[in-house]
Amino acid sequence: MNWKSLMLLFLSLLIFSFLTVACEKEGGAEKAGKKIDKAIESVKEKVDDATK
Q1: pLDDT tens-place string over residues 17-51
Q2: CA-CA distance, 40 to 52, in Å (whole number)?
Q3: Distance between CA 39 and CA 45 in Å, rounded?
Q4: Counted domains in the chain
């Protein structure tokens, strides 16, 4: 293998490892963040309905 092929292989493995880690199950912070997002959307909808 030449140097460019080796670097391409290394970068491909690095990207694959990041994608694999990113696909893990949600932790507590992610779940809490989604609940907060849902609550904010609910409040926005109620405010929009009340101001119409």
Answers
A1: 877 776 667 778 878 888 989 998 998 888 888 88
A2: 19
A3: 10
A4: 1
- Total residues found in the chain within this entry: 52
C-alpha span between 50 and 46 (Å, rounded)? 6
Q: Please, what's the b/e burial string for 25-46 (b: 16 or more CB within 10 A of its CB; e: otherwise)?
A: eeeeeeeeeeeeeeeeeeeeee
pTM for this entry: 0.49
45: domain range? 3-50
Distance CA 15, CA 7 (A): 12
SS3 2: coil
Tokens 């694959």 sit at which residue? 16
